[in-house]
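Standup notes
- DV: blocked on the single-chain target, sequence here:
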Amino acid sequence: YRVNVVTYEYEIILLNIDAAEFAVGFKDFRELEENYAKYGIVEEYVDKLPGEGGDCKGDIPDKIRIHLLKDYFDRNNTKINGYYKERSGRWLKLTVTAEYEYSEEYPYVIYAISKCDDEINEKSLNIVNKSAISKMYCLLATINHKDRTYECIHSENYPGITGPKGSLDEFINIMKERIYGDDFLLFEKLIGNMDMENSKITECEYRIENENGKIHYYNAFSTYIDTPDGKKLLLLIQNVDE
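- DV (later): unblocked, structure below
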């Protein structure tokens, strides 16, 4: 839609959605919006359409509603995004952008609605995966042998690991200081695996002595994975004291 944020007049630029009943037949856009919120959107999302903007001079509206947008776009030209679910079950993304010539004399914005089921499903899957990983492992990291760096994707109470990334030599030194006795030789073999082609899972168990002299037991797994930056060694560590 092209919408006037002062008079609430609107016109349809492109209509390619199933729920056409929410597009036409209203005196202005505010009436359309109220009708759509009441009959088209899952109730819990009606008041959960907050604005997501960047580099804004003014505050982002608490929710995307036509009567709140003039004040925002008078001070910003940054688009606003919001996600919501229809009663039909599909997920949609709403993007509101000021027209190129937006001004007091020409207060028009573009409302663009697009399907985003795949995007939401991917986000949900990432949340599930991250939650599962955080429950099962105390350290998840990738190692790039080519440039000798590591990146910590998840760390929870793992001794000595405080930064999100760094050099592989630094990582090895931290581990060497913490791992008990000759157990480090097992761990060194685990992360020294250079067989990128077979991507077999390598496993070892080792001990760590904490500041109080108490011994803790860990299982570690490593295998190569394909990433946009090439092959990396994935390292998964879990505490197995119990």
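- Follow-up: The radius of gyration is 26 Å.
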